[in-house]
From TrEMBL:
Name of the molecule in the record: phenylalanine--tRNA ligase
Family indicated by similarity: Belongs to the class-II aminoacyl-tRNA synthetase family. Phe-tRNA synthetase alpha subunit type 2 subfamily.
Organism: Haloarcula amylolytica JCM 13557
Keywords: Aminoacyl-tRNA synthetase, ATP-binding, Cytoplasm, Ligase, Magnesium, Metal-binding, Nucleotide-binding, Protein biosynthesis
Alphabetical list of NCBIfam families matching this protein: pheS (TIGR00468), PRK04172.1 (NF003210)
Organism lineage string: Archaea, Methanobacteriati, Methanobacteriota, Stenosarchaea group, Halobacteria
GO molecular function: ATP binding; metal ion binding; phenylalanine-tRNA ligase activity; tRNA binding
Enzyme Commission number(s): 6.1.1.20
Gene this chain is encoded by: pheS
Length: 503
């Protein structure tokens, strides 16, 4: 049998009885590891060798971990100082214990949080106690640090290792090690005789400059052979999905809106008929900025019409809120909590001039909210904003648009629930079912703008509008359960690398 030179070398270096590491095989065969790996995969595709893969973990202390293992953990220092100060018998002033421990700067916080976590004692209103039963001398994390430093990771407690990694005292590096072994067919082939085919499997600069490339025979590609995994940079799936959403909406006839992330409350709240004492306007929800002067001019005539809508209402039967309204508050500058601020700018005619129905606009942009982080909430997320301006719109148009939009992402089980927004009537929340947990997840909010919003803007036909969450769409598409796996500092790189992209 004739095989390319590299394959022959790997066959000859491989063993029938035991797995040999590809690096060793490569050294024996006088090949680069990548060339040996490629040859091994090609031989495996023809059943002549088997390739096994194993992931090895290498533990390395960070500089901070290294310092602690040579000295001591900050919480151990604190415990010792607290004991000396008599904290085993009752609470003592924290300042006294910290002073005696010699801890300074960031080390104090590190000591305190780990002290409490390890139940070395209690910390309460400026006082500290020391638990006499605690045994910092055999602290599992210190023992694990020592084990790693001495190259005895196998002696370390697994939970302690995890904890050290979380504390940034330890890095874990993963290495994929491949090994090959001859199969029965491989042994037979070798016994029958394998010769190096006189083909060239790599085009080299020498072949090119000498002109020899014109006369040699090239090895054929085996496109079915496995190949080494290379994890290269790629577009984040959130960005990919954002772009796909944009393409989809453009395909449905929408144009894109743009506008500021930090904007006047006027555009974020007041145009939306949100009373100035509305709870959603407080700092709990929206981030307020310190320099409202940066806003510049607000359109005077529009300010007046919005003020009047809030105070007196719109139309003969209109009721305003009868609550105070001041331009000062409207001029407050916030990070937008929704991109409906953009819809207001566009609908008002101030962004792209007067609009002629029918019109459709969208944006896929970041919004900011002072939420509590949890698996489905981040402080910032992407909102898919959109609106359609036309005569005689109804809830059926709204539902139809969502059905058509979400279908393109494989989501066909939308549910709608009546809802309340100060600026739309009727209003609906949208839900989808999470493919993994089966839970019903809110994916967006929508409605038809009230006259109190549209009349001041000078719009005299219907406008239906929505704000959908891009991250929640992603959760339904890919089955992510924790949004923090996808972005932020805790994101799961493996998951991001391996998620198959749907097109
Ligand atoms: N602004 C709403 C939100 O952030 C979404 C929405 C936009 C609802 C337009 C109705 C109309 O939840």
């Amino acid at each position: 049998m004739k095989r390319p030179q590299a394959q022959v070398a790997v066959l000859q270096a491989a063993d029938a009885q035991e797995d040999r590491r590809i690096d060793d095989v490569a050294a024996d065969a006088d090949l680069k590891p990548e060339a040996a790996t490629r040859a091994a995969f090609e031989l495996e595709a023809d059943g002549l060798v088997s390739v096994a893969e194993e992931t090895l973990e290498h533990y390395e202390l960070t500089d901070e971990g290294d310092q602690y293992v040579r000295e001591s953990l900050p919480e151990q220092d604190l415990y010792e100082a607290a004991i000396d100060a008599g904290a085993a018998d009752g609470p003592v002033q924290m300042g006294q214990a910290i002073g005696a421990s010699g801890l300074e700067g960031g080390a104090v916080d590190i000591a305190l949080s780990n002290y409490a976590r390890k139940a070395y004692g209690e910390i309460d209103s400026g006082e500290i106690t020391a638990n006499p039963d605690a045994d910092p001398g055999s602290d599992p994390e210190m023992l694990a640090l020592e084990a790693v430093a001495d190259g005895r990771v196998e002696d370390a407690d697994a939970d302690a290792l995890d904890q050290l990694e979380r504390r940034g005292l330890l890095n874990v590096r993963e290495e994929t090690v491949r090994s090959v072994q001859l199969t029965d067919d491989g042994v037979t082939a070798l016994m029958e005789g394998v010769e190096a085919a006189e083909t060239v499997d790599q085009l080299t600069p020498e072949l090119l400059t000498s002109g020899e490339w014109e006369d040699v025979a090239f090895t054929e590609y085996n496109v079915e052979a496995d190949a080494e995994d290379v994890s290269h940079g790629k577009e984040h799936i959130l960005r990919q999905t954002a772009n796909r959403v944009k393409d989809t909406l453009v395909g449905m006839g929408f144009s894109e809106m743009e506008g500021p992330h930090a904007d006047a409350q006027f555009w974020i709240n007041d145009c939306l008929f949100m009373p100035q004492d509305h709870p959603a306007r407080t700092h709990w929800d929206q981030f307020a900025l310190e320099e409202p002067e940066e806003i510049g001019e607000l359109p005077e005539d529009l300010v007046e019409r919005v003020r009047s809508a809030h105070k007196e209402g719109v139309g003969p039967d209109g009721e305003g809120y009868h609550s105070p309204w001041t331009e000062d508050i409207a001029r407050g500058m916030d990070l937008r909590g929704h991109t409906t601020s953009l819809s207001m700018r566009y609908l008002s005619g101030h962004q792209v001039g007067e609009l002629d129905p029918p019109e459709r606009y969208f944006s896929v942009e970041k919004v900011y909210r002072n939420d509590t982080l949890d698996p489905t909430h981040l402080l910032e997320f992407f909102q898919i904003e959109g609106w359609v301006m036309a005569e005689d719109l109804s809830v059926r148009d709204l539902m139809g648009t969502f059905t058509e939009f979400y279908e393109q992402f494989g989501i066909t089980d939308l549910e709608f629930k009546p809802h309340y927004n100060p600026y739309t009537e009727p209003s609906f929340e949208l839900f989808g079912t999470h493919p993994e947990t089966g839970e019903v997840v809110e994916v967006g909010n929508s409605g038809i703008f009230r006259d109190e919003v549209l009349t001041p803007l000078g719009v005299d036909c219907d406008v239906m509008a929505w704000g959908l969450s891009l991250e929640r769409l992603l959760m339904l598409m890919y089955g992510f359960e924790d949004i923090r796996d996808v972005h932020g500092t805790l994101c799961d790189l493996e998951l991001l690398r391996e998620t198959e992209v749907m097109r």
